[in-house]
Amino acid sequence: EFYKSRERLTGILRKLSNELIRRCCKEINLDRIFDGYVHSSMKTLSECIECCESWKDIYLKTAKLHHKFSAHGWVLDKSSIFAQVDAFVQRCRDLLEVCECQIHFARMEEGQKTEMPNFGGQRGPEIIRGLLEIESVFEKNLNILRDVKKTILDVKATSWHDDYNRFRAGMKDLEVMMQNVITSAFETVTTVEGGIEVLDVFMHLSS
What we know:
Largest sheet: none
Distance between the termini: 53 Å
Helix content: over 70%
Strand content: under 5%
């Protein structure tokens, strides 16, 4: 009887949202993400997103049932209840992209770099130099994000948007550099077998 008012119901559901975010934050290890433990981190981030989406589904289902069977249906401020949850889900998606970029541009798996592939022919050393340069530039971009990691999971800190947009702009530049390296690698190909080998080398970029 004490929680009939719109304000109180909205308030308690918003507190539930905040508690959900707090518990998810405890599961996300930012140091592991930046140290390149990408696959295990991506699993955790995906589970956090799934958890938040489930909470929204449960709310919608319960609200529908309440409307159906109660004389006084809920007329609540849904945007107020879920604004921070939506912002948190977006931060998790940003971190998923950071993990994917480490696979693409830094050869990272679970805290270890995968082996640098061999490129034959006269242009082999030049291609490897290009890849190492991409990795070096990526590392600088990643370290800029690492320096502001305190703001990542704080949904009230809007400075993250600017930092992350700068990172994404850097990734666009790296994509162009990578395209140039791939083009160079294919210029040395003279056989179907050789072409398949080069495709295999760049398979981690397929997504």
